[in-house]
Amino acid sequence: MFEGLDVLLAPCVKGEAPAGLDSTGDPTFQAIWTILYVPTMSLPHHKGPNGLPVGIQLIGRRHDDQRLFACARWVWDRLL
After folding, report:
1. What is the pLDDT of residue 13?
2. Report field, pTM of the whole predicted structure over 0.90
3. According to the model, what pLDDT value does residue 16 have?
4. Which residues, including other chains, have CB under 8 Å from residue 27's CB and lie 6 or more apart?
5. Phi, psi angles (nearest 5°) of residue 9
6. Whether 69 contacts 41, CB under 8 Å
7. Contact (Cβ atoms closer than 8 angstroms) between residue 72 and residue 43
8. How many CA atoms lie within 13 A of 78 on its CB side?
9. Where are the beta strands (DSSP E) in 31-76?
10. What is the pLDDT of residues 24-53, one digit of tens each?
11. Does residue 14 contact residue 31 with C-beta atoms inside 8 Å?
């Protein structure tokens, strides 16, 4: 799946973060990566209609956390 790619880009959740501290949101979009034991990193990308963050998720190769961190830094620097 990663042939020719450093990381995959996917949505974190179905919309913006939930209000309050009672929930972190629906984990549906993260479940597959957890099952596959691959590292992921979520980055806030923009704000939704309620002013709360909407995130993107970067997915790395198994056992390649350093590449994921480097790619996340590259993406983050371009989001600012």
Report:
1. 85
2. no
3. 86
4. 13
5. -115, 130
6. yes
7. yes
8. 6
9. 40-47, 53-59
10. 778 888 899 999 999 999 999 889 999 988
11. no
Q: d(Cα 47, Cα 49) in Å, to the nearest integer?
A: 7
Residue 79 binned pLDDT confidence (cut-offs 50, 70, 90): confident
- Angle 42-48-52 from CA coordinates, rounded to 5°: 70
- Single out the residue of 24, 2, 9 nearest to residue 74, CA to CA: 9
Residue 56 corresponds to which tokens in the numbers above?
A: 């993107």
| Count of CA atoms in the C-beta half-sphere (13 A) of 30 | 14
CA triple 59-46-4, angle to 5 deg: 25
* Helix, coil or strand: residue 50: coil
